[in-house]
Amino acid sequence: MKTIIIKPREKFSILSEIKEIFRFKDxxxxxxxxxxxxxxxxxxxxxxxxxxxxxxxxVIFSIFFGNFAKMPSDGVPYxxxxxxxxxxxxxxxxALNNASGSMINNQSIVTKVYFPRLILPISSIITNFVDFLIxxxxxxxxxxxxxYTPKLAGLTILPILLLIxxxxxxxxxxxLSAINVKYRDVRYILPFFIQILMFLTPVIYPASIAGKYSxxxxxxxxxxxxxxxxxxxxxTTPINWILLLISAIASFFFLIxxxxxxxxxxxxxxxxx
Length: 273
Fold this sequence. Notes:
Layout lengths: L13 H10 L1 H16 L4 H24 L9 H23 L1 H4 L1 H4 L8 H5 L2 H20 L6 H4 L2 H25 L3 H14 L14 H4 L3 H14 L6 H26 L2 H4 L1
């Protein structure tokens, strides 16, 4: 009788992890499609919420920060300015929240079968891409209302911006999901952390307001992404490639650190969860 022993690899390799995820691509597809169906199938609240949340936030910010506080908006109507920032920010914050809770939300399969655990946090973010596309409809409506035409050449950079956002969210999310397995307080601390981080990100104000400290602000990956998204879509200011590069490097750093930490903690998940 043949005995098969399953044990972790002696050495960690990102390339081997990618191959392992690809080998379980059917499971990845199933988990991703499951989350999408749960959110959108036979319900209108999922689609409505994807539009309602950023839209109402935009309205409130426009009233208080645009009208009352007279926050600068790089010469464009404040509702368009802030909505572009909210569109990217909602994608990042929701993806971060989903990834951080992915292990706890799927603990029933974590303790029963073997599969690359990285699949769980990564697949949990797929629904956020759908939310992003749905929420973009409001931006199209705002640009039509205010008579703005998006720069088609600039739109080509949006996939790169989403990739940088994805790397930041999954990197930090992997770190938090590993901690969340042992310390369940993460689910209570994370919303407060995300709320504070939003005000350290140029969502309601332009990145240029930081002046000489803008490069320090760019260590927050969303700074360069949101700044570049506004420049690419509106075309009113040139893309600050230095800020975007700093944010891209920071996102890649978070991704590598998150993967390494997650893999080191992975062997204890089934015992602790």
